[in-house]
Amino acid sequence: MLTPADHFHGSDLETIEYAYGIKKENITSFSANVNPLGVSPKLRQTLAAHIDVITTYPDREYTALRRAIGTYAGCDPDHIIVGNGSTELISLMIQIRHPKKAMILGPTYSEYEREISLDGGISLYYPLKESNDFQMQADDLMNKLNEQIDLLILCNPNNPTSTSICRNDMRKILDCCKQNNIFVMVDETYVEFVPDHLEITSVPLTDYYNNIVILRGISKFFAAPGLRLGYAITGNLDLIKEVNKKKNPWTINSLAEAAGKLMFSDTEYISASKKLIFSERDNIVHELSLINGIKAYPPTANFILVRILKNGITSKDVFEYAIRRGLMIRDCSTFPFLGNQYFRFCFMSAVKNRELLMCIHELFDDANTKP
Ligand SMILES: Cc1ncc(COP(=O)(O)O)c(C=O)c1O
């Protein structure tokens, strides 16, 4: 039997509904990191008009879809593999690279470690330091890399710290990895939310390095986690051949294929999304700086990590306080290196963000005035 004390993933609205007796329609998920604009009007119309695509198999090679992604991401369509969300690609890459010892920058998304252990490998964490606001120090990381490690995993921007690695540092890391025979997997699920994302993305590096694969998807920025469309970019043609040998056919359904061909060129939706997230991010950073008893780390993605400095309040208290108002944040106590002083939330509509900020204000202000 679930209790409110259990931990919840950002997509666990059904579990919350059951544990707290709040209808899922009345919950705003600040924990799933999904663009609050929802499905673009263009996509809604097009998908409805193309419902008949489900009566045929998708193109086995996904040629037109890969062309659309190539134009959007700035790479050769032959360097792209599409998958059933980036989750399928994380899993395939790990099965193919079959790492014995992987290094993961942490705290981060838990799927990497899970997949590595399912495949029989060991994960070592390189801990991002709180004293550096969880920003990676490239030279320090490179000192920890050696020939015993066969895979390095970097989430860029990183979930849950919302920090990014710039391309210059990535280039240094790739050189160091090349010398040590380490393959690098970069998860760019949140990259489009970064203000200067062309400075952050590693896509241009795939033309020069064959020890890198980049993973991305439409779940977060295009607000379509239910469609299950992800893609990998690599200049390593042997890896692409291996993946295509191993991968089941048609794992991207015809509706996702049709959606993908449209959404990457939906410039209106792309700029509206950026405008909303960029302005909300600035407002939220400012508002949080006015609340006593917390520290917010500078965010580059569409979510922010917050540390509770006030004694006597835990991340579970913040979760409980907010969920009773239908606002679901992420209690980060289960992330490695974070404890029950950390919580994360993503940026939703301006109105909902004000509600959540008010809620955090109330909780900490009441605590401030306690005798
Ligand atoms: C960093 C990161 N990568 C990948 C995923 C999964 O993405 P997808 O829906 O494309 O499988 C998530 C989902 O929360 C995530 O946070």
Automatic annotation (TrEMBL):
InterPro entries: Aminotransferase_I/II_large, NHTrfase_class1_PyrdxlP-BS, PyrdxlP-dep_Trfase, PyrdxlP-dep_Trfase_major, PyrdxlP-dep_Trfase_small
CDD domains listed in its UniProt record: AAT_like
Pfam families: Aminotran_1_2 (PF00155)
Entry's Gene Ontology molecular function annotations: lyase activity; pyridoxal phosphate binding; transaminase activity
Superkingdom, taxonomy of origin: Bacteria
Claim: DNA-binding is one of the keywords in the record: no
Protein name: Aminotransferase
Enzyme Commission identifier(s): 2.6.1.-
Membrane-spanning residues: none
Domain Aminotransferase class I/classII large residues, every copy: 26-357
Natural source organism: Robinsoniella peoriensis
Keyword line: Aminotransferase, Lyase, Pyridoxal phosphate, Transferase
Similarity field: Belongs to the class-I pyridoxal-phosphate-dependent aminotransferase family.
Keyword Cell inner membrane: no
Cofactor(s) this protein requires: pyridoxal 5'-phosphate
